[in-house]
Amino acid sequence: MTHNIDIGTDGASRAVPIDIQELLATRLLVQGNSGSGKSHLLRRLLEQSAGLVQQVVVDPEGDFVTLADAYHHVVIHAGDYNEREIAAMGARIREHRASVVLALDTLEIEAQMSCAATFLNALFDAPREHWFPALVVVDEAQMFAPSASGEVTDAVRRASLAAMTNLMCRGRKRGLAGAIATQRLAKLAKNVAAEASNFLMGRTFLDIDMARAADLLGMERRQAEQIRDLERGCFLGLGPAISRRPVAIRIGATETSVRGGVHSLLPLPEAEPQDMQSMLFAALETAPPPRPVTPEPAPVAAGELLERIAGSDTATEESETADAAEAVDSEAIVVAALRDMLADPEAAFQAESVVYQDFSVRCRMQRLARAPLDLTAFRRRFALAKGGVFDPAEPRWAELIAAAATLSDDMLAPFVLIARAAIEGLPCPDDDALGAAYGTRSPGRIRRLIDYMERQGAIVVRSDFGGRRSVGIPALGLSTGAE
Question: Where does the record place the Helicase HerA central domain (predicted)?
């Protein structure tokens, strides 16, 4: 099952999709000079994928805080918190799968790099059970992963560069998919840029940047000139999540915008020169009172923000879809989703975080506010489904469920498959079937698993003189047929 979003249109006005699930596995690099439309592209990507994947935005200019108005991201104003609190928030974000915007605009560049490094390291160091898929967007990535030393101290630069390297090089196994944007490829550390497999290249003028962009897109050097001629909001895309050949894309419209930014011409004031001079040089004591300024909101206490992160996945979604969810039979949706997922023979061999993400998306597509099972509950429910028990509430499975209650998660699916065969009077499942339930194609691992289950007293294995195997289940007092 693919989860495509519409990023824009090509030269023939056809929609250009991006496969978000593939993007999570292969990462994204966006390049373009200031004014080329990078931030607009990232905003389009975030808006279109908001309902499909958790999003974490590292925002050095405060451009993306408006996502909170329409998509209920939690905004973290980094200047209000210390290093320990930022680290705690990063860990809590992985646990509760909250979409957040880390706004760094009130900090100096060195503080921005230090704060981003702390935050990204907390995401990266989360416990294994919290390795949920997340799209991590970093704007102005050349600030956090510079190719050369600058005005900041070496310790801060190394810490920030190491955090960005972990995100792009080692983050995939932890569910973190980097999507980074830079004004100049020449200013971005090569080991960070090289880990992306998807590229969206916007307008750039310097020869060194055009040459690197052309190399990444697989274009000849003489073709690199077209990168200089791209219009604002147009990008050349390439990668497994976008297209196998370079394609020109005009990025589509967005629903949100930058707060307070004006980039178009405005009429000049019509005051006469004498009046303007009088206003500018009037005595201070007679100067008109300043316009009232809307006060900045008071900083949110770290504890309160942590509670907001923990509750964001429930409150915001349920408030929007409560009426629709009341009419939906969540249990029927769970059963249907599990059946559809296991109809794909490769589903049993995929990583747990990928399977749970697929399950969550299927539930949301059926108008559920959120997945009705957390990761722990889904892990056992999916194991039961791999064993052929899709609805554990059915009376005929009551004894089986009771017998499996004390088993560890890794033993559950093979045990249920064998126990179901014993209840239905079927032959013992073969090694291929047990391997699919266990998530392995190794016959040796299956043999070791059966030996381990027998040592634990969960099963009793018998073999006749013909080499046929049958398995007894002591807790049920039943045995499978010989196989």
Answer: 10-77
